[in-house]
Automatic annotation (TrEMBL):
Keywords: DNA-binding. It comes from Pseudonocardia petroleophila. Residues 37-56 bind DNA. This is TetR/AcrR family transcriptional regulator. The keyword DNA-binding applies. Gene3D superfamilies: Tetracycline Repressor, domain 2. It comes from the Bacteria. One of its GO terms (molecular function) is DNA-binding transcription factor activity. Residues 15-74 form the HTH tetR-type domain. Pfam families: TetR_N (PF00440).
Length: 205
């Protein structure tokens, strides 16, 4: 079909195709690893195989785009920002942990499928530097504490740091020995600990 398109449509079409290809490729990578073929990707995306190479110069570039999309913190940060601030602190933190666990489960699954032990350097894959992402997640969790900061014995930033450590170690399949911690367990450790001397009435809830 030779219907003329506006300049704007032509500019947007490649980006739309890029997103569609990345979205179609991710589940295939989780299933087949780096061995996934461009033919499989094209079939999943509903396009001709040559379409892939009109957007990406080679398969490796597509794989880098998939990895970058999985590591992009934007969607997770938006979810953290959308947590209902009217909820009690404990419920807000449980929601935050569930959001962070969902992200990490996806990242761990992708890295495992690709046979990688850690995310690629940001020079190799276009994603924010780890320190930048860590700062953003700490700030987002600290923001969730809000006015309940006065009930804590540590600054919200310290609580956010410890929460992220618990989420990472309690979610990583090798670190947790196949027994991941639930969001409720992580928040209980964070706010209550395991001591018999803890009095539930003294904890923000």
């Amino acid at each position: 079909m030779t219907t003329a398109r506006t300049g704007r449509a032509r500019r947007l079409a490649p980006e739309a195709r890029r997103r569609a290809l990345v979205e179609a490729t991710l589940p295939l990578v989780l299933r087949h690893g780096a061995a996934v073929s461009t033919r499989q990707i094209a079939m999943a995306a509903g396009v001709a195989e040559g379409t892939i190479f009109s957007v990406f110069p080679h398969k490796e570039a597509l794989m880098r785009a998939v990895t970058a999309a999985a590591l992009d913190p934007g969607a997770t940060l938006r979810e953290l920002g959308d947590v209902d601030r009217s909820l009690p602190l404990r419920a807000r933190l449980v929601a935050a942990v569930e959001i962070l666990q969902s992200r990490l489960t996806g990242v761990f699954g992708l890295l495992d499928a690709l046979g990688m032990h850690r995310p690629p350097d940001d020079e190799e894959c276009e994603h924010p530097a780890p320190s930048t992402m860590n700062d953003a997640f700490r700030a987002a969790v600290a923001d969730l504490v809000g006015p309940d900061a006065r009930t804590l014995r540590v600054p919200p930033e310290e609580l956010a740091h410890v929460l992220r450590l618990l989420v990472f170690s309690g979610t990583h399949p090798r670190i947790c020995d196949g027994s991941p911690l639930s969001a409720e367990q992580i928040v209980t450790v964070l706010l209550d600990g395991y001591s018999h001397h803890h009095h539930a009435g003294n904890s923000p809830c």
